[in-house]
Design a protein that fits this description.
Layout (H helix, E strand, L loop, with lengths): L15 E5 L32 H13 L4 E5 L9 H9 L6 E6 L4 H11 L3 E5 L5 H8 L5 H14 L2 E8 L8 H11 L2 E6 L17 H9 L4 E4 L8 E6 L5 E5 L12 E4 L4 E3 L8 E2 H6 L4 H13 L5 H4 L2 H6 L5 H4 L2
Parallel strand pairs: 1-2, 1-10, 2-3, 3-4, 4-5, 5-6, 6-9
Antiparallel strand pairs: 7-8, 8-9, 10-11, 11-12
Helix pairs in contact: 2-3, 3-5
Bound molecules: S-adenosylmethionine and iron/sulfur cluster (2 copies).
Amino acid sequence: MQQSVITDKFGRTLQDLRISVTDRCNFRCRYCMPREIFGKDFAFLPKEHLLSFEEIERLTKVFLNLGVRKIRLTGGEPLLRRDITTLIKRLSNLEGLQDIGLTTNAVLLGKMAEDLKNAGLKRVNVSLDAIDDDTFMKINDSRVRTQPVIDSIIKAKETGLGVKVNMVVKKGMNDHQVVPMAKYFKELGVTLRFIEFMDVGQTNGWDFKHVVTKKEMYDEISEQFELEPVDPAYFGEVAKRYRYKGTNTEVGFITSVSESFCSSCTRARIAADGHFFTCLFAGEGLNLKDILRNGATDEEVTDTIVSRWKYRDDRYSDERTEETAKNRKKIEMSYIGG
Ligand code: SAM
Ligand code: SF4
Ligand code: SF4
């Protein structure tokens, strides 16, 4: 397969692709899909607007030809997409693909883990924002306790999937859970990554004062456990990695707010309705679904993506201010795919 390397205005290549397979979710996390907005009357995408598996596969092939090597399926909750294992099977067989992962709240992961692994999935990132039931239930607003998520994590590990846990930390919401979560996953031998709360979308009431920085979390954890730095595994790795001294277990920090990493951002996203985004904080995307459905050839689709990437100058997090965080139009995380 011929691989072309395309670069944007700042010389960043296109290396990874996140594909959102649904904008729906079985949780209503307060900071992502608050129930007052994502309630019974919310207009989720109609089925015919979702990319079909054929369309996702076709676009993935085009992106692989452009140098993408890693893809991650997300949403909404990707395990809600019907026959997701069939999609994974189709994608994991594509030439040139090195890694396929999925981000999930893990409610459905336990019973699907084996099928997902057999379909070719390599790794899962499980989102869990607290180890304490009350805090977790207040966040997910869906009466789900932590145990089913933990059972899924253990099941996924036993199945042979790579497993990492992600925790978004918001001041006053779950910052008291940083050390208990670190302790729990250190003992379980699973990598935990703390994510700084971000101003994605328009509905989560974000403010700088809600952000718990990496430094604050690092200081708190190091009072309990000795940490040593781990080198990044590849260019553009977003997590700052550490190891608990004397173990093989890692802990990481995704410092999107306090130490932004736009200069090495090689990631593109496709929303569930086929809009292509070059930044998580974009206001508008390029409608690839219509281009596909209007009969474009692979070459034409490729040219469209290449011209969009060449003009990419996104560096939202490097330039974030109170003003952009509050007033800029941004799409929702559940739509673009986290
Ligand atoms: N439903 C799946 C899940 O929760 O893992 C996949 C989609 S979710 C949008 C992907 C990730 O984005 C989750 O780990 C979630 O916690 C994170 N996320 C959502 N809103 C966020 C925000 N405002 N700041 C930081 N991370 C956020
Ligand atoms: Fe759903 Fe994930 Fe958003 Fe929570 S963070 S509401 S699980 S999409
Ligand atoms: Fe990439 Fe945009 Fe995030 Fe910067 S703000 S790291 S360009 S997604």
